[in-house]
Design goal:
32 strands; flat; alpha+beta; Beta-Lactamase; six-stranded antiparallel β-sheet; eight-stranded mixed beta barrel
Length: 838
């Protein structure tokens, strides 16, 4: 390679080329020199900053650190540069750089307070300011850490000063929320341990008056005024009356607004106050303010036996002239309370301290009163020569307490004892259950819900009031009567004088219900079912005695209404059986324990099957086969009937589809729908979904409802019936004539037919009453253009009678019981049993 000359150019090159290369070399040397000087200036400035400064890459790696940083962190530069910022703060989360870059990318700076770590492991608080920076051509950030240790020490000294000062200090933000209160403030306001400052200082707990005794609004308080005006409010005198403790304190308050840097409105306000209650005890101003709060002041000079009363205290006692001594002051009190007051005063004279008494007395005009008297030895009086205190009229509070006590024990509708009162009374009598001699009557009104549903809640309330009056009249002074809830009543009686007293009272109550109840033009026969239990044989605890009386009442209601039943162990066993049935019933659907049988509905003239009714059967692995009349009522009570009803609907439609696929055509199946199922779910939508699932026309399904739906003349009820009818589903009222027979409602519902209850068909043609009912129902169906199906047809004579009456369709054992799906299919395959659409 050729050698270069001193200028850095190859001597073999031509002159122009050598000139260009010489100039380039000189420029390169100048550039290197400038960069070197720039780097020196950067380093000088960087190290001149008194606070720790670090340069960080985008991922948080430390690219550079100044001398103040090495000093603050007590580490060499090499121990930090090239490491992640976590080396200075191990507690930083893994994504700590995300919010920093979000702020910097918006053009903002990012400020945060953290605790950094020195090389020796000690920590110190810092405030870090971060900004965008380009370092060595790379996107970076510069972070300046300001050591807060001295500021924190100053704040601590300031807080300690705030806590030891004898003045109350309260700091509130611009929304007037309390952010700080010192110990003196807590003491002045009487806020002890375990109490929340914000709760205790809520304005609704205090009545605040100015120096003239006028009540102050929240806007007139000094803290609010300072926040609103931005001006200091100095030495304002206020009286604060605590509504619950009934104590009045007087404060002088100075409120100082405080502004944030650059703020135009105060960011918070500091109120400094002193308790001046003692200084104002004898002033006329104080007496005026206490008058507004209905609190009087008094003082007793024990040495001279002189009594001083403020004007308000004299007014409260109702004295025609101020008492001159303590005995005259006590003369308006009842004897027992006079002795209590005198004893409390003597104790203060002997040992110091104070007292707080509630006393009763009479004014000079004879009107009774209640007062609260607070007294204590005057502070700083070594000889206890003066006892001072306050006197407050609490008559209104006592009357209110008595009213509340009565209300708490009384049912507001009937005026009888309520549930809590009778439970308390029963518990008191059963403290010694072996010798209690207590009996309990549990009374439930029969058919109350009918009145409530048909005539409305107003009539229901009137019925309860009339029933309560009849029960109270029947029991008289022989027992305590309580409304236990709803239409249930309890009678508590003593059996020590007459062991048969409960039975006598039960007969008297039943006799009281012999006459009908009248509401305007309506008349209802309301009876009662009564259960009786006794202590100790039927229970030694209130709930046990009530539960057993309830069991006896339940048995009386289901055997024969308008009667009474005493509790027996056998009833308890049957109750246990009911609970077992209800427990197993909840699992029956999931355990596939239900099945359906199908009873044919037959053309009474031609004998052909026209439809079927789906009947549910339950085979339980513990209880065996249970009759529907045993478990359906339980399902209605527990609400399980809704889920069971949904299963029946789906299973019946599935079976119709299966018969259709077997070539047997579309068999219409009637399914019973309980009232709870009708009211508790979107029945029309469920039916639509099931029909669609099994690809069945609406005419394949007939829904049978109880008469209870007739009284639900609500828009939702009519809407559901209209939607079902629009699907093509047949709608029938089951067991018509047994229940409400609400003909006025019957004509409004878009139904297709009625079912004549077997309760009436079983008596025809020989029973005249049953014949009359059947004729009436048949006439109703014809007049309204409704179909009619007779249930319980068991003899040829019944069939002939129903035919002559014009009833077209019937079902019952004369034709077939409930058949399994296969048995029903076999009937359909017989030529003479083909499904008829007639």
């Amino acid at each position: 390679m050729a050698s270069l000359d001193k200028a850095g150019a190859d001597p073999a090159l031509d002159a122009p080329t050598r000139t260009i290369m010489t100039q380039a070399a000189a420029l390169l040397r100048a550039t290197i020199t400038q960069k070197h000087w720039a780097l020196l200036r950067y380093r000088a400035l960087f190290d001149a900053v008194p606070d720790p400064v670090s340069i960080l890459s985008e991922d948080g790696t430390v690219l550079d650190l100044n001398k103040a940083g090495m000093t603050a962190y007590k580490r060499p530069r090499a121990a930090i540069v090239g490491k992640n910022i976590n080396v200075l703060n191990p507690e930083l989360p893994h994504d700590h750089m995300t919010p920093v870059w979000e702020a910097l990318n918006r053009g903002d700076t990012y400020v945060i307070e953290v605790t950094n770590m020195r090389g020796d492991g000690t920590r110190f608080p810092v405030e870090v300011h971060s900004a965008n920076f380009v370092f060595d051509g790379r996107k970076s950030l510069v972070a300046v850490a300001r050591d807060l240790s001295k500021r924190r020490e100053a704040e601590l000294r300031y807080r300690e000063l705030m806590e030891v000062i004898d003045k109350g200090i309260l700091v509130q933000n611009s929304a007037r929320d309390i952010v700080y209160a010192n110990r003196a403030a807590m003491r002045i306001f009487g806020i002890g341990e375990g109490k929340r400052l914000a709760d205790e200082l809520q304005l609704d707990r205090w009545r605040i008056v100015d120096e003239h005794g006028h009540e102050l609004s929240s806007e007139a308080l000094p803290a609010h005024r300072a926040l609103q005006t931005g001006q200091v409010v100095e030495s304002m005198l206020m009286g604060l009356y605590h509504r619950q403790s009934k104590q009045l304190i007087w404060l002088t308050v100075t409120s100082v607004p405080q502004f944030a840097p650059g703020g135009e409105k105060p960011a918070q306000v500091t109120s400094i106050f002193s308790d001046v209650t003692a200084l104002k005890r004898d002033s006329a101003l104080f007496d005026r303010a206490q008058s507004l709060a209905h609190i009087g002041g008094w003082e007793w000079d024990t040495g001279r036996d002189l009594v001083y009363l403020t004007d308000e205290a004299i007014r409260i006692l109702g004295a025609l002239q101020p008492p001159a001594n303590i005995e005259e002051m006590l003369s308006c009190l009842r004897d027992p309370d006079r002795r209590r007051f005198r004893g409390a005063m003597q104790k203060v004279v002997d040992t110091g301290g104070g007292f707080d008494l509630e006393l009763q007395g009479s004014r000079d005009d004879g009107h009774p009163f209640w007062i609260r008297v607070i007294g204590e030895a005057e502070a700083g009086d070594p000889s206890t020569s003066r006892i001072t205190g306050t006197l407050q009229d609490i008559s209104a509070d006592k009357r209110a307490e008595e009213t509340l006590r009565i209300q708490a024990r009384t049912d507001p509708l009937t005026g009888l004892m309520n549930r809590d009162a009778v439970l308390n009374e029963l518990g008191t009598r059963l403290i010694d259950p072996v010798h209690a001699n207590v009996a309990l009557l549990y009374i439930d009104l029969d058919r109350f819900k009918t009145v409530n549903d048909v005539l409305g809640h107003s009539a229901g309330d009137e019925l309860l009031m009339q029933a309560a009056a009849r029960i109270q009249g029947a029991v008289g002074t022989e027992g305590l009567v309580a409304r236990f809830g709803g239409d249930e009543f309890l009678v508590l009686c003593d059996t020590s004088g007459d062991a048969e007293q409960p039975e006598h009272l039960a007969d008297a109550v039943l006799a009281a219900f012999a006459d009908s109840f009248r509401f305007d033009k309506d008349e209802f026969a309301i009876t009662a079912s009564i259960g009786i239990s006794r202590a100790p044989e039927d229970g030694v605890r209130p709930q046990q005695l009530i539960q057993n009386a309830d069991i006896a009442m339940y048995d009386s209601k289901h055997r024969a209404r308008n009667g009474w039943q005493a509790f027996t162990p056998d009833l308890a066993r049957r109750q246990q059986d009911r609970l077992q049935i209800e427990t197993q019933l909840r699992r029956a659907v999931d355990n596939n324990e239900f099945r359906l049988v199908y009873q044919p509905q037959v053309d009474l003239r031609r004998g052909q099957i026209v439809a079927a009714e789906a009947l549910i059967r339950w085979q339980n692995h513990q209880l065996g086969e249970l009759r529907p009349d045993l478990f359906i009522s339980h399902a209605e009570t527990t609400g399980d009937i809704v889920r069971i009803g949904s299963w029946v609907l789906r299973e019946a439609c599935r079976q119709v589809r299966e018969w259709h696929d077997m070539g047997l055509g579309i068999v219409r199946v009637a399914v019973n729908v309980s009232y709870r199922q009708f009211a508790g779910e979107d029945l029309a939508e469920n039916v639509r979904a099931v029909l669609a699932e099994y690809e069945l026309p609406g005419a394949a399904l007939e829904l049978e409802f109880t008469e209870r739906v007739l009284i639900e003349d609500a828009p939702a009820t009519l809407k559901t019936f209209a939607e079902l009818r629009a699907l093509g589903v047949l709608l029938t009222i089951d067991d018509f004539g047994e229940g409400y027979s609400a003909l006025n409602y019957l004509r409004r519902l878009p139904i297709h037919g009625l079912k004549l209850s077997q309760l009436f068909t079983e008596g025809v043609p020989n029973n005249r009453s049953d014949v009359a009912v059947c004729q009436a129902v048949s006439a109703i169906a014809r007049s309204l253009g409704l179909g009619l199906v007779a249930e319980g047809v068991e003899s040829e004579a019944q069939r002939q009678f129903l035919l002559q009456l014009g009833v077209p369709v019937g079902q019952g054992f004369l034709f077939a019981p409930g058949l399994t799906p296969d048995e029903f299919a076999s009937r359909l395959r017989s030529p003479e049993e083909r499904v008829s659409n007639g």
